[in-house]
Amino acid sequence: MSRETLARLLITCPDRPGIVAAVSTFLFNHGANITDLQQHSTDPEGGTFFMRLEFQTPHLDVSRGVLERAFAEAVAERFAMEWRFAYAEEPKKMALLVSRYDHALLEVLWRWSRGELPAKVSMVISNHPDLEPAVRAFGLPYHHVPVSKENKAEAEASILELLEGQADLVVLARYMQILSADFVSRFPHRIINIHHSFLPAFVGASPYRQAYERGVKLIGATAHYVTEELDQGPIIEQDVARVSHRHSVEDLVELGRDLERQVLARAVRWHLEDRIIVHGNKTVVFS
Ligand SMILES: Nc1nc2c(c(=O)[nH]1)N[C@@H](CN(C=O)c1ccc(C(=O)N[C@@H](CCC(=O)O)C(=O)O)cc1)CN2
């Protein structure tokens, strides 16, 4: 399938009959060929409707701007839609923030380097110098921005300056600093964090220690959009692994690393491929 002519359309609106017909007819009438269509309604009647379409545009009869304006007037207004188009030939710019743990960062960078994650990686920023050689090995810029309780505001200002115009998506690959409300507000539903527990269990710092003390039989990892409130943002992806009384905290940390890597990579890919619709504090993922 040609990426240069691949387009996507995401829709959220009050559910009612005729939505699929109206959207598909609109695209057909403008020369687009729908190649994938997924939808979800929350209730048999009167709920919320979600849809993700992929379509090819080599024979589009108008420009993208004209198409979007026409869609707004002819379809979106009629069905009170929230909607957005995206174009695969315009990969999203992705910046990653990390502290000292390398596993989640290297998983994302390895998959990106193999072409599995359609993004332009603009930089890696860390509050520690440790991972610079590993990042430079991918040919990427690395910025060390030390953070302390005393300089947190200045450090965030420096990070925001680095990210200006350089990030459609910010990935927290085990970045161990709580971001301010102002920082988060700059990237609404565009910061993805990997939390090392099966949320909502064990929010905050040291979730494996919390899990060990609780005697859990499952540990987990959760990728979620970052909001001002710590680890409370819309969940994108999760996974779990069985554990027992035989496992130490160190064992849980080691077992959890693989979960974190896989879960974060899937969440990042789904975001980059425009497969996620956020509705309230939940997501609809058309994986
Ligand atoms: N506004 C938000 N910021 C961050 C979120 C979030 O959901 N909202 N997720 C965290 C990641 N995280 C767990 O996944 C986490 C990171 C850091 C801490 C924490 O207590 N940090 C201390 C400093 C610790 C240190 O210096 O080593 C702090 O910031 O005061 C808890 C949970 C990323 N940010």
From TrEMBL:
Entries under Gene3D superfamilies matching the protein: 3.30.70.260, Formyl transferase, N-terminal domain (3.40.50.170)
Keyword Hydrolase: yes
Highest taxon, organism lineage: Bacteria
Pathway entry: Purine metabolism; IMP biosynthesis via de novo pathway; formate from 10-formyl-5,6,7,8-tetrahydrofolate: step 1/1
Keywords for this protein: Hydrolase, One-carbon metabolism, Purine biosynthesis
EC number(s) from the headed UniProt entry: 3.5.1.10
Catalytic activity: (6R)-10-formyltetrahydrofolate + H2O = (6S)-5,6,7,8-tetrahydrofolate + formate + H(+)
An individual GO BP term: 'de novo' IMP biosynthetic process
Domain ACT, first and last residues per copy: 8-81
Keyword Hydrolase found: yes
GO molecular function, one term: formyltetrahydrofolate deformylase activity
CDD domains attached to this UniProt entry: ACT_F4HF-DF (cd04875), FMT_core_Formyl-FH4-Hydrolase_C (cd08648)
A family per Pfam: ACT
InterPro entries, alphabetized: ACT-like_dom_sf, ACT_dom, Formyl-FH4-Hydrolase_C, Formyl_transf_N, Formyl_transf_N_sf, PurU, PurU_ACT
Active site: D231
Function per UniProt: Catalyzes the hydrolysis of 10-formyltetrahydrofolate (formyl-FH4) to formate and tetrahydrofolate (FH4).
NCBIfam families, per the entry: PRK06027.1, PurU
Protein family (similarity comment): Belongs to the PurU family.
Protein name (record): Formyltetrahydrofolate deformylase
Organism: Allomeiothermus silvanus (strain ATCC 700542 / DSM 9946 / NBRC 106475 / NCIMB 13440 / VI-R2) (Thermus silvanus)
